[in-house]
Design a protein that fits this description.
Elements (H helix, E strand, L loop, with lengths): L4 E3 L12 H8 L3 E4 L2 E7 L4 H6 L5 E2 H8 L11 H12 L3 H26 L1 E2 L5 E3 L2 H18 L7 H12 L11 H36 L10 H6 L10 H31 L2 H18 L5 H5 L2 H13 L5 E6 L3 E2 L5 E2 L4 E4 L1 H4 L3 H4 L9 H6 L23 H18 E4 L12 E2 L5 E2 L4 E5 L14
Parallel strand pairs: 1-2, 3-10
Antiparallel strand pairs: 2-3, 4-7, 5-6, 6-14, 7-10, 8-9, 11-14, 12-13
Helix pairs in contact: 4-10, 5-6, 5-17, 6-10, 7-8, 8-10, 10-13, 11-13
Family: Belongs to the cytochrome P450 family.
Pfam family, one: p450
Cofactor: heme
Length: 466
């Protein structure tokens, strides 16, 4: 039996864009155990096709996610069948449904972004504003939108709903029972019971919302959906069997994962833009052009026309994909094509970080940030080519990829329209700070500088804009 080799890496250590992690994966023949996570086997480019096509009886997605997130309280409420409700809700998010969200969401994002800058931005010389932590910056805007989008506008007027959601977001049901001491276990048990009551209240709230809207709107087929509750109420019998116990955990998981993932992804995008002034100028010119054509309001048509922004965000997402993601669990002894044996119940993950930088597959410029590449290939942010996946692999593509793409472009467009984005005030040439972490790829420096500007001055005919 050939055992996976050890991939040596220190948690929190820095790695650059041209990273030693690629060499490490090559040394273990694209299949190794991370020294800080011995229970997990990380696979690389050689096994993308296998990883994408193996049936669930060999590679189980739900068990892999549950094992990786076993400390997360929510998983106590999600069985395999219940987890599928996420996919069902995602399948309802058609382009036309998203169109109904865009107008209100753009206003929420604009207000949240400005509110954060006023409250937490550090005003420095000549009107420069320092944002120390872009993760917090984006997560605040994303969470405020999530609360309204997933739980409706009555979230604002129902303190119990606000408390229940916040309780869940703050709750850390950490620790496996065997590893908890008696005091930690008692605390964990009490918190779990408290959260169960919160779940029950959210179920009753959601039921009231659905029934109220059905009374007021009936079965109007052409009614514009403004939030997820509108989506759910139209299918409460046909898809969801009126089982609110299924729906509430899904909405809560959306709230958490949506906020965290959007913040992590767009944090990288903002840092990338901040160190590339030429790219920022092209982005600003594009926004100026789009405003002249569509007006200042951000519509789905305007977002669809943001070709260069689409490509910039896609490149940023590509270069910041996780080195330890797409979790699965082996359900029987399986021998990889390189002879390495994976035992039953082995937890596995895929290294998209090194795969998407693989120069043998994607050419010598694979590690470079080049928005012209996806444009020339005709690949949009929402697309998920099987050899260049950024939204999951195989049949497990993220069902919210189009929605996430729209929101990502909206958030960055709002910031670009109002602020010049840069990385330092020292006058030195900007350089990307490099990355750390394994599962969640984040730059070593999460701060940027902003300065309010007039987007109309960014015109290809104007040589300078300062």
């Amino acid at each position: 039996i050939v055992q996976p080799k050890i991939i040596k890496h220190e948690l929190g250590s820095e790695f650059s864009q041209k990273d030693g992690l690629i060499d490490m994966m090559n040394k273990v023949d694209d299949s190794g155990r991370l020294n800080v996570m011995h229970q997990n086997v990380i696979l690389g480019s050689k096994f993308l096709e296998e990883y994408s096509m193996l049936p669930v009886k060999v590679l189980n997605v739900f068990k892999g996610r549950r094992s990786f997130n076993r400390a997360a309280f929510l998983y106590k409420f999600l069985s395999n069948s219940r987890y599928k409700i996420n996919i069902k809700i995602g399948s309802l998010l058609t382009t036309e449904k998203i169109r109904g969200f865009v107008g209100e969401e753009s206003l929420i994002f604009q207000h949240s972004i400005e509110s954060y800058i006023r409250s937490y931005g550090i005003l420095e010389e000549a009107g420069t504003i320092h944002i120390h932590n872009c993760f917090d910056f984006i997560s605040q805007a994303a969470s405020k939108n999530a609360f309204v989008r997933f739980f409706g506008k009555n979230y604002y007027s129902d303190k119990k709903v606000q408390d229940a959601i916040q309780e869940y977001l703050n709750f850390n049901g950490s620790g496996i029972k065997s590893s908890l001491n008696i005091f930690e276990y008692i605390s964990h048990y009490k918190n779990s019971r408290k959260m169960k009551k919160q779940f029950e209240y959210l179920q009753s709230y959601l039921k009231r919302e659905v029934e109220s809207r059905n009374q007021n709107q009936g079965s109007k087929k052409n009614a514009i959906d403004k939030d997820f509750i509108d989506l759910i109420r139209k299918h409460i019998n046909s898809i969801f069997d009126q089982d609110y116990r299924l729906i509430v955990p899904s909405l809560l998981s959306f709230t958490r994962t949506y906020t965290l993932i959007v913040a992590q992804k767009l944090l990288n995008t903002l840092v990338d833009i901040s160190v590339m002034p030429k790219i920022f100028r092209l982005l600003a010119e594009e926004q100026n052009k789009i405003i002249k054509k569509f007006g200042k309001s951000i519509t789905l048509e305007a977002l669809d026309s943001m070709e260069y922004l689409d490509a910039v965000i896609r490149e940023s997402f590509r270069l910041s994909c996780p080195a330890n993601g797409l979790h699965r669990q082996i359900q029987s002894v399986y021998v990889l094509s390189n002879g390495v044996t994976l035992k039953n119940e082995t937890n596995t993950s895929f290294n998209l970080f090194t795969h998407l930088r693989n120069e043998h597959k994607f050419g010598k410029s694979a590690q470079e940030f080049n928005p012209e590449t996806p444009i020339s290939k005709g690949i949009k942010l929402k697309n998920n080519p099987k050899d260049e996946p950024i939204w999951g692999i195989g049949v497990n593509k993220c069902p919210f990829s189009e929605y996430a793409s729209v929101q990502s472009k909206m958030i960055i467009a709002i910031i670009i329209r109002r602020y010049y984005i840069f990385s330092n005030t020292d006058g030195v040439d900007p350089v990307h700070p490099g990355y750390n972490h394994i599962t969640t790829i984040m730059p070593n420096n999460t701060g940027i500088y902003l300065k309010r500007h007039n987007i109309q001055l960014y015109d290809p005919k104007i040589a300078r804009f300062f």
